[in-house]
Automatic annotation (TrEMBL):
Keywords: Membrane, Transmembrane, Transmembrane helix. Belongs to the sodium:solute symporter (SSF) (TC 2.A.21) family. NCBIfam families: sss. It is a multi-pass membrane protein. It holds the Pfam family SSF. The lineage of its organism: Bacteria, Pseudomonadati, Bacteroidota, Flavobacteriia, Flavobacteriales. It is found in: Membrane. The chain crosses the membrane at residues 6-28, 40-62, 74-103, 124-147, 153-174, 186-204, 260-281, 302-326, 346-371, 405-425, 437-455, 462-482, 513-535, 556-574. It comes from the Bacteria. This is Solute:Na+ symporter, SSS family. Coiled coil: none annotated.
Amino acid sequence: MGNLATLDIIIFLVYFVVVAGYGIWIYNRKKSTATGSKDYFLAEGSLTWWAIGASLIASNISAEQFIGMSGEGFFVGIAVAAYEWIAAIALIIIAVWFIPIYLKNKIYTMPQFLETRYNKSVSLIMAVFWLFLYVIVNLTSILYLGALAIDTLLGGGSLHIIMIGLLLMALLIGLGGMKVIGYTDVIQVAVLIIGGFATVYMALQIVDQRINGATVGNALAGFNTLINEAPQHFKLILEKPKATTTTLAMPENLDVQKYVVLPGLAMYFAGQWIVNLNYWGCNQYITQRALGADLKTARTGILFAGFLKLFMPIIVMLPGIAAYVLYSKGHLPGFNGVKDGAYSAILGFLPVGLKGLAVAALTAAIVASLAGKVNSISTIFTLDIYKKYLKADATEIEMVRTGRWAIIIAMFLALAFTWTDVLGIGGEGGFTFIQKYTGFISPGVFAMFLLGMFWKRTTGTAALVGVILGFVLAIFFNSFAVDIFGKETWLYTAFTYEKLEGGVVQTITEIPFLINMGWSFVITIIVMILISLAGPKVNPKAFVIDASMFKVDNRTLVLIVVTLLLLTALYVRFW
């Protein structure tokens, strides 16, 4: 911790002691004489609405948001906030329409949903695939980006030590089960929100001081300076570039690079909804927090998380824009302009004490996400693979023990893949890396869940074809479509641009991945419907849906309306 003063270290240690102590206290207070598997994996009936909401945010806001989204804020601007603000609407949809179906049918894992609605083959294939995705893509990216950010802030040279430290902290919490994760996430969220807002406040003061020459920086003046100095960074909807082929020497080259990541208004009719609805509604890592609660508690917790999502861009995106303005004016001499280093560059300005709080906030986000992710990995492995295919007569104690071993093994695998950045996460850009590669399976998975819930005719054969076809189509649009159909079709527009990587100019031709995702989803849905029409009019495994399941009480309705009004105001202001 060479770059931290004694006060910073004390603040960080206080955070660690409080979280660890609270976790141990929760574990001892809530454990029963014989801890069952559902109690361990789902904290059945133990989490309050505020714990569910806080845990959803803590699990979601991690290194890819703090580092990756801040990096996209540096590069693109406020347009990247769509991932957070559309998530608020997605969470409303999940709370009102998805969660009642899960809870009525006593669904505890996503593979269980697939087995209940379709068949064991679909369930097993997706269980294995989700384990692969969670370990190889999600867990590794959270660990690598988080350790890299903290290492940069501390002066470098300790990347591997920090990786091990983060894993050990997450292990301490994860082994306690969902109860410990859920309630410690409340503290984690408090730390990351307080630390995050404090960092933003100081960043805006620094902008006012460095750009305007103010003796004592004013945060509001700093924010107005950002708008004045980088007006293009405060446009939610990016315009489609007129040029489809650019070089480094052309100013349009940057516009093309931004557009392929966030393709303007088109993304709101394509992949943006699929990303959010699949992530929040068909993802064990997220839905697990609500599956052990009653409907009213689960709904309120999810809507609370949706309300908090409105404020997340302030914490995770605004520092990136501040870094852009400071860098463009020559006030970040130690920063090389690589977008994933933007957040760490801002943290370097923080005074003694606040820097320790910022490191604690970043650590809280990373540890909470790691712990939540490995708990989901152990839940799927234990309940959907170990119990069903390896040891059907496993006792409750054996299942809990197996779940804990699954956590340890997943942690070890993540460390192995991140030790030398085998997957090239740093080169892709953390946030884009995760969105792009999870986007390969999102269209098929979401189509399978959506039709499975709300169309009684959907068959298991259609589901299996759908998940495979969605994956194949995503790869096709990403890698082969341009070579076969050309750069300009009625389905898409592909762009060719140049990018400097490792001192070498790379020429890249691609279709915006959110557009790829949208067409992959539409085609998959059509094929699944056609296949299902060959089956019975009502599939015998279809869910029974009662309209009363989707009714909401007045308190829930007020929370939904307030969230939508705030979101509307944001879009009107920054359109």
